[in-house]
Amino acid sequence: MDASHSLKIENTPVTLRELALAKVRQAIISGYFKAGDRLVERSLCDELGVSRTVVREVIRYLEAEGLIENLPKKGPIVAILTWDVAEQIYDIRMLLESEAAKDCAKIATSSDKKNLHKRLLRIAKASHDHDDIERVEASQAFYEALFSIAKHHIAWEIVQRLNSRIGRLRALTLRSPERQVAGFERMSRIYEAIEENNAEQAKEAVKQHLSEAATLAKTILTAEEK
Fold this sequence. Notes:
The protein is mostly helical. It is built from 9 helices and 2 strands, in the order αααββαααααα. The protein has helices at residues 16-30, 41-48, 52-65, 83-107, 110-128, 132-150, 153-174, 183-195, 199-225, and strands spanning 68-71, 75-78. The protein has a two-stranded antiparallel sheet. β1 and β2 form a beta hairpin. α4 crosses α7 (153-174) and α4 runs antiparallel to α9 (199-225). The radius of gyration is 18 Å and the shape is globular. The two termini are 23 Å apart.
C-alpha cells in the first residue's frame, strides 16, 4: 500500500458511513487496496478513524457492489477482477451506452450540449491533473447526463449497479501505457458527435472507445490471471 494515501476522514456534515464508503471504494478503484488484499476490520477502523460497526456496513455495501468478496475462513478481500467478468461488463456497456449516445445525439438541445460540455471539461481537468479517481467520477457524471438526455432512465439504473466495477476498469485502463488514444480524446469524439446531432457517429464513437478499453483490459487481466 502507498503510505502517502491517507484514508483518514475529516470533519464534514456527510455521515460517517457515507464518507467511509466513499474512501474505501476509492481506495479499491485506485489500486491502494489491490485485488486479493485482505480487509481487516481493526486495520480499517484505525485507518478510517471510525467504529467497527461503520466498517462492517461499508464492507457489506461494497460486497453488494462487487468490489469485495467474503471468503470462508479468510473474511473480506478485494474482489479479484477477471477478464470473464470484465468482458460481460463491457458487453453490457457496449449495448447500453452506444444506444444512449445515439438517442442523446438525436434530441440534445443547446442546453443539453452545454451541460455535457461542462462535464467534458471536468474530465479534461482531471486528465491534466493526472487524478485517476476524479477522472473516473467525472466520466460517470458525463455518462449520467448522456443517459438522462437520451431518456434512457432504466438503462442508467442498470449501469449504476455496475458503476463501481466500471470505475475499477476505467482506472485500470487509464493507467496503461499501451492506451492508443487518450480517454479524454475518445470522450471528446462522443461529445462532438452529439454536438452535431449525428446519431450514428455518436454510437460509433462509443463503440470505438469501449472496444479499445476492452482490448486493454483483456491484455492486463489475462496477464494477471496467468
